[in-house]
């Protein structure tokens, strides 16, 4: 794997981050999967987001991502992360904790999306459609960063 997970988490710890969160840009060609949070959720109800969630004690970032994707979208295959992509942003959780989200990217494996009760719907969007979403600015920036890197890989690959 191209990501040095220990360096990522050590950097977050040095910065005073006390919650590690993982997310995924799951892509199918130029389309990215986004989920809509339940309206009953206590944190950002009804907003659209990338699949994501907090790491549990003892999990590294990839283990946490595999668990979260299994829980949120029914992903059962081994993760094949895109090399060289990890985007981060910091935020304050609903309970006031300092969190850093580490977002990786991977191609959709064709498995039908099976949502958990945390989400009410999903859709596939292109980066051109970001203005028509309720994604946070941080998630929009993550998708744009991914799209820029994907375009560069296509031009040089």
Automatic annotation (TrEMBL):
Q: What cofactors are annotated for this protein?
A: Mg(2+)
For this UniProt entry, the molecular function terms from Gene Ontology, in alphabetical order, are: 8-oxo-7,8-dihydrodeoxyguanosine triphosphate pyrophosphatase activity; 8-oxo-7,8-dihydroguanosine triphosphate pyrophosphatase activity; 8-oxo-dGDP phosphatase activity; 8-oxo-GDP phosphatase activity; metal ion binding
**One Pfam family matching this protein:** NUDIX
Q: Which InterPro entries match?
A: MutT-like, NUDIX_hydrolase-like_dom_sf, NUDIX_hydrolase_CS, NUDIX_hydrolase_dom
Q: Name one GO biological process term.
A: DNA replication
Which leading EC class covers this enzyme?
A: hydrolase
Q: PROSITE patterns annotated for this entry?
A: NUDIX, NUDIX_BOX
- Tell me yes or no: is Ribosomal protein among this UniProt entry's keywords: no
Gene3D superfamilies of this UniProt entry?
Answer: Nucleoside Triphosphate Pyrophosphohydrolase
Keyword vocabulary terms for this entry: DNA damage, DNA repair, DNA replication, Hydrolase, Magnesium, Metal-binding, Mutator protein
Can you state which reaction this protein catalyses? Answer: 8-oxo-dGTP + H2O = 8-oxo-dGMP + diphosphate + H(+)
Q: Where is the Nudix hydrolase domain?
A: 17-149
Ion transport in keyword set:
no
| EC number(s) stated in the UniProt entry for this protein | 3.6.1.55
Family from the record = Belongs to the Nudix hydrolase family.
The identity of this protein, by name, is: 8-oxo-dGTP diphosphatase
Q: Which organism is it from?
A: Lipingzhangella halophila
């Amino acid at each position: 794997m191209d990501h040095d997970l220990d360096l990522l988490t050590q950097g977050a710890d040095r910065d005073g981050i006390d919650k590690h969160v993982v997310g995924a840009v799951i892509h199918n060609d130029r389309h990215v999967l986004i989920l809509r949070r339940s309206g009953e959720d206590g944190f950002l109800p009804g907003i659209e987001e990338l699949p994501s969630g907090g790491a549990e004690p003892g999990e590294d970032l990839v283990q946490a991502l595999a668990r979260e994707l299994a829980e949120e979208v029914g992903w059962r295959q081994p993760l094949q992360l895109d090399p060289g992509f990890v985007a981060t942003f910091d935020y304050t959780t609903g309970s006031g904790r300092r969190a850093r989200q580490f977002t990786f990217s991977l191609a959709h494996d064709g498995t039908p999306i099976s949502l958990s009760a945390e989400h009410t719907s999903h859709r596939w969007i292109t980066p051109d459609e970001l203005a028509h979403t309720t994604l946070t600015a941080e998630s929009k920036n993550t998708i744009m960063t991914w799209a820029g890197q994907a375009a560069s890989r296509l031009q040089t690959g």
